[in-house]
Amino acid sequence: MALNDLMAEIAMDRTLFHGDEPSEVKVLNQVLKLIEDKISEVKNQAVKCLGQLIKVIRENNLTIVVDKLIQFSSGKEEELRDVAGLAFKTVVSELPADGKLAAAVSQKMVPKLLAQLQNSSQPATPPDSIMETLSTLSVLVARFPQQATSAANDPIKVILPLTSHSRAAVRKRAITTLAQYVPYAPPAEFPELMKSTITPSLAASASIEKQQTVSQLVGAVARYAPTRVAPVLGDIIPGLLAAAQREDSDLCEGCLQTLETLTLRCPTEVTPYLPSIMLIAKEMVKYDPNYAADDEDEDEAMGEPDDDDDDDAVDDAYSDDEDTSYKVRRSSAKVILAIINTRPELLTSLYLNVSPVIISRFGDREESVKLELWSTYSHLIKQTGVYGDAPQAKSTEGGKRKRGEGMEVEDTPYTLLKSQVQALSKALLKQLQPKSSAAVLQAGMDLLQSLLVVLPGSLAPQAQSISSITASILGSSSSSTTSSLHATVLSFLSLFFSTHAIAAYKSAIPALTPKMLSASSQRHPRIASEAFRAFSALLIASKPVQAAEWVNKLYDEVVARLRSGDTDAEVRMRAEDVVIELWLNATDIMRTKGGHEWDALLKGGRLEGAVRVVEKVAGDVSMDGAWVGSSTEWIFGVLQRPAKAGKSSAFGCLEVLLQQYKSGVPEHIPAEIVPQLIHFLSLNDLVLMTHALSTLNILLRVSPKQTYPLVEKSVLPTVYQLAHSPSVSGTALEALTEFFQDLVAADNDIAGHIVPGLVLALEKSKTGETSPSNVSKCVSAVVRGYHDLAAGIIAEFAKSIKPRSKSTQQHVVLSLLALGEIGKTIDMANQQEIFSNSLALFSAESETIRAAAAFAAGNIAVGSLHTFLNHLVAQMQSDQEKRLLTLHALKELETVAGALWVPLFAVSSSSEETVRNVAAGCLGQLTTANPTSYLPQLQERLADPSPSVRATVVAAVRYTFADNTQSYDELLSPLIIQFMSLVHDSDLAVRRSTLSTLNAAARNKPHLVRDHLSGLMPLLYKETFQKPELIRIVEMGPWKHRVDDGLEARKTAYETMYTILDTCLAKIDIHEFLSHVITGLRDEANEIKVLCHMMLFRLSQVAPTAVSLRLDDMAADLSVGMKGAPVGKDTVKQDLERTAELQRSTLRAIAALSKISAAGSSSEFDKVVDSVSRPGSQWSSEFHELLRTFPTSIKRSISLTTVAKATITTPDLLSTLDPTPDRVPLSKSIKSARPVRGRLSDTPLPPRPRKEKRPPRAYEVGGRSSGFTKPVVSATLDKYFLHVHASSNNTLLHLMDAQGNCQPKGQVSAGILKYRHKQRSTFDAGFQASLRMIKRIEEEANKKRVVPVRMFVSEGSVAEDGFEETRVADGGEPQYKPGMEVEVVFNGFGHGKQAFIAAMMSSEGDGVRPLVTRFTDRTHIKIGGERSPKARRL
Fold first, then answer.
1. Euclidean distance between the first and final Cα of the chain, in Å?
2. What sections of 1246-1390 are H helices per DSSP?
3. Taking the model in full, what pTM does it have?
4. Judging by beta carbons within 10 Å of its beta carbon (0-12, 13-18, 19+), is residue 770 exposed, middle or buried?
5. Cβ(1121)–Cβ(1081) below 8 Å
6. pLDDT for 35-59, tens place per residue?
7. C-alpha dist (Å) from residue 155 to 115, 117, 161, 891
8. What digits encode the pLDDT tens for the residues 81-139?
9. Sign of the C-alpha dihedral, residues 753, 755, 761, 763?
């Protein structure tokens, strides 16, 4: 109690002993005396109290503590020695890291401890005392390296003799402590250690014990100080290789462990010795001197279970307990694993030379070795998935195989893995026996799952064996120890069903389904949910599902789960998925069930889930009118509920249901729905407003007579007010324009009244709260709905733009925008006066009028190029003041004539960067339209003496990367290196433009630059360094401002590195790349640091081993990034916000890196993690929240999206995206480009994919005749829109379907993620919001129905149904892809736009990028105008 009270007093008052030294000494001695107490609890409390006392006592009294503890540790009483060692460690751990006290304690403690070690040669010194002293020194040097080494006098010479101690534990502890001192020792000491100890002990004549000790010493030094060992590897590795072949298991194990450490810690320097290391590891993985089977019979003999366990005739002279050879085999496997993780260029060699040996040892009699080998092979498969197309080092054994007649094909890791799948699966499945332990079965299933992720469909020949094994595992009773195994097996079955043809495992379904049904009824939620997920995959693969007993039992189980009130949320969601799949794939069976599933769904459970099921079934299954009517009434009741939750998805369901009425919507439905929809036509909730408009549009189309009168009377006045609101954009604006078009189509007589109503509502509204652009789009919609009205509307608006018109500015802008919108679809060749008046308004005083005039002129010219193009060209050449506006008008055109080539290059010499960028865009359009003519001309201008022209050339090339045609790639590929060579141009602007082009090429067409990266990467790395010659000092009155002209180029270089990491990972040297990333952490610019943090996050997933070895190198920079901004008299709020953003970015990087950091392997990084994670830290709660959101391992989540990515080759659909605001990419062809509404400088887009005409046919399992050669895969896709609104204050993301229905959980913003105030506008907030949305899209994709269809068509023929098809190799399995496609719509210039792009290009976006078909930017661009007001100074 007294010790507890003393600790409480010290915690409350740190000045307890100030001015009272006698009391301090007295208390200190009393506490030290209590350490010798006989009661253990008192000893423990005394040690704890001593840890607190050490913080408050005087420095001169530290000697008392150290001397007393030294006395205790050298005593004969074992318990007292243990307590003294614990006290030493407690004192060291309680000392603050920053302060003088640590140095004082080290100065007192280290000499005493070293002196004790010097006296340890006496026979009376207990070994345990020596180990405690060494352990205390290790803790000291780990926690306070500088203080502990400065206080020591040549500690290496003191500790080195202990490596020869007679007791092995002392030698091991001494080796570790000595290695910890080596990094801080003088540079000359390690060479001396090499000369005196290491080299002689590795000689062939040295004893086994000495070689074993030295091998451990080298490995320990390599872990703590790899830079000291790397230069002398030539003297170390040959000796280790020779020692590993001596007949001693312990020595061989130690040498292999050291070789593993050298491979990991010195990846570059060890390269020349890797073939020898691989050879010795391959041989030693078979090391089993006590097993006499021949190699050819080894696998068979080892795989046979020994049934004679009770045989009495066992040789008692030897037992497996005495056999340590398994340690050698396990260490060999770890050496191979180190090579796999650090040398992706050796994958081919590993498959040729090492993989067969590992497979032959899959049946090792020692379970730990078996699991290690399986884990090693699993890593080999995963590395193949990441680096399968990486350039491979030349192998001395084969490497090529013949295909066809006389044709040699070079082997790749993929082809070699595929050729070894049969042997691999056979050997592995042989070990997965019912008697195998849960750990073996779990590891085996994980390995099979990894194989299917990389090679989907590769286990078809083993389908029967797999089915029997999985059925056997699922047939065993579930317990706390086997629940994880059962869940893994069910997850594997889901993937297996999804990636194989039904014919491969159809015969096993009767044996599997009872086990799966039993699992679905388990109380364990994960087992039940995985069982339902496996059934969903089985139903998809089995379409059309025939009547079977398991279907009926599955239906009963699902209904029971849905009716139960205590069903887990995840299980319920999976059960809802099964209902969907049953209706989609077993429709005939479900029609006989009486609808019990609908009672369970609609009368209880999750409202959101029920809406989702109804919507999916209604959209894809032909249901009877009674069901549609009852579902419509139910969903209408959902919309009438006061709660807002779930209404968005309910609207989507209602829209689908309304379209299912085969004989027309009943008359009473519009009368009931339309009055209720008026309440949702409000700007308070744009999402629900969009849904309400979409519902009205459907009613106007399917029931115009009943709906039109109601809309005209009660809805139209409200919609007029919405039309001119600037808040309406994106999908809401599309729904609004469709409303006017459908309304006019329902009754043409109203068309003449709508336009005046729109104009009148705009004029009555307050100035500044209107959007003439929205009104102009509505006018255009009216014209599209009723073309006969076009002439009158054009004449009316033309009056407002005449020279002497007295119209208000707002009306002039509206007239210009409306004429431009109408000109997109109507030929206005006869309207010469309108075009001339639009050009005249280029000189208007108002910036808004000038921008609208450019929009109008460009779009009017779209319909009649031969009439108006020459006028635009002449004005561009003659009028410099109007040049920028004219260029923007030209960009509105769908095609550009070749006559613009020379004038555009004349414009490119302009000193205005904005003008050059627009000209480069037009040149890019021309080049894409006719690459044969214009690419050589661009190439000729690379040598132009004008830097502006050279910059324009590379910018024009950047704009061409949106083109996806192979013919264009063939022309550009041989020239790409010449264009990229400008990265070392003398002009800074040219270099930056070239880096931007390289960035776009690596992102959109990585295949063009991959083979040239070996020459481009050094040039790119050169631009990542800060150049002193580009730094200048600008004097601003009494202040001096430091300007770095090379900052933008440096930022672009790091952006390009980030892109290359995502798209060309297999072609870069990870170790060199990582070194430049670490260098970027020290850059002065926060933006570069954030990019480096993002790259570290990505690298921690794709190259965890390489990154984990450099954690200590980046620890100091990460620690600096977490420090707050120094607050001074000149500090402003923006400085604090920028620092907070950097801190959060650094924290995310630390959290990601902590996932791959092994405990104790990186002491400096561990300190950084401790500083942000310990309780009470400012960032503790946020750090732990990040750890919860990050994946728990480097394994990729296995989903249908991942399978689709692995099996279907799709072009990079981010071809129109560019990460910087001044880089606006163009479409792949001018002819396919079209204007995008609401923007003056649009990004033309690639053509939309062809839509399917009907749902895909069922899987056909017929035999192939000679006329049928290749299987074809087809799937139905649902259209979605992702709206990214990046304002200056926030980032908002909405996921909507084609009807404008916001999806459940489809709204994400920085505010939802708990960012507050100014933090919402940061890049960090946008990035996190984007990651959340990406995850949501992946979830939606995994829920989509994916139907495997296999249709055999003749070579060169087209499928009869006109589907979009994907061909696979002969004999290939049917492929799968998520049934959705996404169009991304941008709006705004905020940081969230670039953050979304970065998130999409990161590894988290891998599953979503293949789903994206189109990008649109609807941001309004300001052109010219008055100078912005002076920024406020704070």
1. 57
2. 1323-1343
3. 0.72
4. buried
5. yes
6. 888 787 887 888 888 878 877 777 7
7. 10, 10, 11, 74
8. 778 778 777 777 777 766 677 777 778 778 888 888 887 766 667 788 888 888 888 88
9. negative
